[in-house]
Each structure stands twice: as structure tokens, then as C-alpha cells.
């Protein structure tokens, strides 16, 4: 069909228009110079000019809104624009501009159909909600959601009002409070989109639906019959809508329950979630315009909140890391086609899973005997089967993934491996032996990466004929879920080897930081004093649950005592001795762990540790504490409540050790230190990481708090020398007066 182009089209703008002979105008968004479409500060003016021109054109009977990017619809608002808003009033004005643009779409004289392929998130979904209908592709890359809560915000362009009116209050709250993203088929089931089709025809189908709307045949041109509406009302969803959403008493029950569940998860640390509930309720009870005004006011206040500022800082840090090669040298990563994994245990299985699925590479698993290899392959398949059961992948995709994974008890197949990742027991001599065995069969440029959490890489590399190819790749358990990869390099590691493994980690779906070698590296080293202090609190008479609850309230996802059980008490005890030997008295472990191990209490894996895992959960779906643990620690639990002072006591030790890592050159930047703590250890994201905590409190205040704790509890709280320097100079870790990282000095 022939088409004409509107005279108002300007090539440099984000929107271009094609008016077809059948009266359908196809508007394509393609932000110049950007890999994905985002709503920038001038988007309202651009939209206004485009749709005013369409309004004047008598040929236009309907509009299809699509993307000019190959695999992205609209990924949301430009976060940089939000960060630039310095006051609540300025941020609220941005929200009102967004709302005005969406109002124009919704009130446009002709029906608009959104053709969605790729990311349709945040402001992108709000744009689609303002359209009459939505057609989505069935491609895996198509995701719909309102993830603003993950940045400490709420949808600010009408999403809090239009989504509940489209899919119901319960479903919309679930999406907004979790930031959950839906593929096309799940969105169709929810009623968020009207049709799901292959990506190749998504625009064509949207055009066809637009033409039906022109002729009055569209889905929304007629109301459902009495029988259909009756069936709809008496469905489970209909009854929920009728009983909870459509009457004041029901709404009160729904919102009270939602607030209770929200506070249980956030513990009051994430105000955006509570504001979402408030704003949605205003819209339902006082109407759309009141809801939009409440949305704009809340959006403005949240944008400038400390929590949102920290969460946006994390976002920018992760975006920067995506472009970071992990080295300042001008090198390129070498291609990786095949990865060898040594050890078929829990870590090896997870590494194989993400390498085959995310990186789409061939993986060769090796272990000592056929039984171990068989168990490993079976567990890898079980991971894929779990995704199949949740309908994340198809049977064909599961089989294709398993075809990339093979096993062996020898080194057959390792000759052509580009990277070999060792994931065996934490035994230095065993790892050294494996280095020699791999180098006997692999090429001179094969990178050998040890998945160790504490053993110095330089010590492992001593066994290598090619120490420039040896580094650490410290994954976190479970590998397929945890987002961080900590790569550890020595003074001999070649920059190309670092860049190669950083690129591999990114392809595995990980956020990657590179740190210098040293006992415990970064994450393990800063976690140790935090865990030690929790043990000291226990020996002082604080109840196990009280310690865990204090740190949960502070913002950690699990309490430190629970974490000891999850990691394994034996593993923690072994690492503790390594760090005590390296750093002396300030890392001295608390006595008691060895008695737990002798008593067979290794944590979750043995069925009992501090908590019991071999019995049913107790009240509130919590694991019961084993009271006999106190006897092994020589403690009497007489303190059953621990406040924020206890949480700070543990956390400041972690922060102080992070600063020591910075001043010793273990870290390349404070950014990496913050990301490593948040993504690897669960440091509270709304606090921004250990270095942003220092900046928020001020170095002088942190030094003062540590000195008070030192006077009360001993030299382990002595402030890091760099903190004292910063307290005197006024320097910070982020911002204009940021302190520079120290040059790395290899440890002996």
C-alpha cells in the first residue's frame, strides 16, 4: 500500500509519522543516538507537536504507536532527567508534564493502538495504557511492567490511576509494589494487552485492530452481553472485584491487607511502596483527577527522598559497570567459545547453568567419578526443568540448553577451553594441583579462574607456568540467582585475561566488579567482622532472633545468624581463621563455632545450626531457634530485643573494613565497593552501600561513632586511617571532592 509522509516530520526528532492511504497513521519513536527509547525532558513538547499535526490532518482516522528501535518499545523515563530535579516541586512538575502528554493520547480524537515489542516499562507502559488498545509480541524480550518502586519512586505519568482501572486493584498493586515484569502472554492473561502475536507482525496486527476501531468493530465498541457479564462477575477475579474493589468496606480490607504485607517486606524502609497504596486509593475514592494530583505530589516528594537518591545512584553505577572492562589498560576481551568447569557441586552446577543459558556457550563439567558427574548433570537439568515448570522456557529450549552441557571424569575436551573455572573445595594444595593438571592439557592462553571465596589467588598462581592467565572468579550462591561476580586479579594477571573474564561474566548475566588480590578479597573480608560481631552479641546475651530482627529492620534481607546457617558454619569458621591469621586481633573469631561443628551443627545443610531445619517451621512461618546453642556459646539469652544501635554496631564494622580495602587499593573505586556490598552481601540498597553511608553521615560522624564503640568494646572498632584523614579534610567517596583510590600494593 502506498503511503505519504507528513510535512511536519523532522528527522532529528524522536517521533516520525507515516500516514497510510487507509487512514492509519503509524507513529514511530526512535530517540536519536540512544540504544533504547526513553522519555526525556522534551518528550511532552515532541508529543504535543506530533499529535497536534495529526489532529489537523483530516486523513488520519486512527493511530498506531510503535518503536523505531529493533528490540525495544519504550524502556521508561530518562533517569538522568529525574536525578536533575533538585526539589520536590521540580520533580512534581515533571510528573504533571508526563500526565499531560498521556492525557492527550487518551483524549485524542482518533483511537490509538500500541504495537509493543521489547521493553515496555515505566513511562513506556504508562504510554501504552493511555492508548485504546495494546498488541504485544510473544518475543522473550517483550516485558511489561512498572518498576519505579525499585528506584524508590512510583509511576508518575498516570500509571497509578490507569493500571487499576484496566486490570483491577489487586493485580495492579502486585505489579507496582514488586516491580514485576510480565511477558506478552502473562500480560494478555491479566488483561494488560489485547492480543499477542509474533514480533514480525506486531505492527501489522496493530494496524488491523486500528482499522476495526475505525469501522466500529473493535473490542471496545460494544459492551459484553448480560450472560457474558454475569459469568465474568462470578469468576474468581470477578468476585474479588465485586467484593473488595467495588465497595468502600471491601476496599478498606484490601488496602489494609496490602499495607500490612508491604510493611512486613519493607519494614518501613522503602516509603515508595506505602505512597503507591495511598495514591491508588485516592484515585479510587476521589476520582481520576484527584488521583493524578496525588500521584504528582507523591512523585515529587519521592524523587528527592534520600532513599530514591541512593537507589538511583545504584542504577547509574550498574549502568557504568556494563561499560567497564575491569582494567584501565587499552585491551579487548578475547573471544570465548567453550568453558570448562571443574567440580560438579552446587557452585559448579550454577556456573554451568548460567554459562549455557545466559552466555549461550558450550560447558564441559568435570569431577572425580561418574557418580559425581551424573549428579551434577542431573542438577543442571533440574535447574532448567524448574524454569520449564514455571513456563519460562519451552521443552525445546530446555533440550537445547542441556545439549550445551557435557560431563567427564578426565580432562578430555579441555584442550580447546578458552576459560576453565575451578569450583572445588577450599584447599590450597588441591587448587594448585588442579592448575598444573589443566595447564598440562590446555593451551598457554587458557584462562584459569578459581571460584574461591578466601584463598589468595597469588598463592594459587604460584603453581602456574603462566601466572598471567590466573585470576579468581568468585560467584555467590546460588549462582543462578545471585547477581554479583567478583573477579580477583594479582599483580601478574594480564589485562587481556581480566577483560576476557569480565566480558564472560557480563554474558552470564552478572554485575561484575574487579578487585585486587588479598586475604578475603573484598566481599568476604568485609563480611567477616559483621558476622563476628553478631556472634559477640550472642555471647553477650542477645537472643538469636533479636539479633536477626535488628538487622532485618535495618534493611538486610536476612539476619547475620541466619546467614551463618545458610553459608555453613564450618565454611565460616575456616574463612574466619584465614582472615584472623592475615589481619590479627581485629578479625579474631568468637569462640563457639568449633563447638557447634563438633556437635554436628553445620547449618541448613546438616539440618541444624543456630536454627532447626529438621523440624517444621514455627509461628509466623519462621524456623525455630535451637536453645541448646546458647550453652555451646556459654551464653544466657536475657536480651530479647535489639535496637538500631545493635544494627549499627555490626554495620559500622563492615563499613570500616570496606574503607580499609579502599585505602589498601583492593578496590578500584568506591562505586565498586558499594555495588559489591549490595549485590553480593545484601547491604541495604536504600542506604546506597558502605561508602555512600560514610558520605551520608559524614566521615567525622562515622569516626566519632567508631571511637565511642572502640572505647566500649575494644580496638576492632578503631577507625580506618583514611576515615580520620577524610574527617579532617572534608573529602567524600562520591561527588566533587571525592578521595582518590590508593595504588594497589601487593600483599606479601
Structure description:
The structure is a single chain. The chain is of the alpha/beta class and 748 residues long. The protein folds into four domains: 3-222 and 270-303, 2-enoyl-CoA Hydratase, Chain A, domain 1, CATH 3.90.226; 223-260, no CATH class; 338-516, 3-Layer(aba) Sandwich (Rossmann fold), CATH 3.40.50.720; 523-729, Orthogonal Bundle (N-(1-d-carboxylethyl)-l-norvaline Dehydrogenase, domain 2). Helices cover 50% and strands 11% of the residues. The protein contains 31 helices and 18 strands. The strands form three sheets. It has an eight-stranded mixed beta sheet with strand order 13-12-11-14-15-16-17-18, sandwiched between helices. Strands 1-2-3-4-6-8-10 form a seven-stranded mixed beta sheet, sandwiched between helices. Strands 5-7-9 form a three-stranded parallel beta sheet. α18 (428-441) links the parallel β14 and β15. α5 (159-167) crosses α6 (169-178), α12 (271-286) runs antiparallel to α13 and α16 (370-389) packs antiparallel against α17 (395-403). Residues 5-12, 220-236 and 744-748 have low confidence and may be disordered.
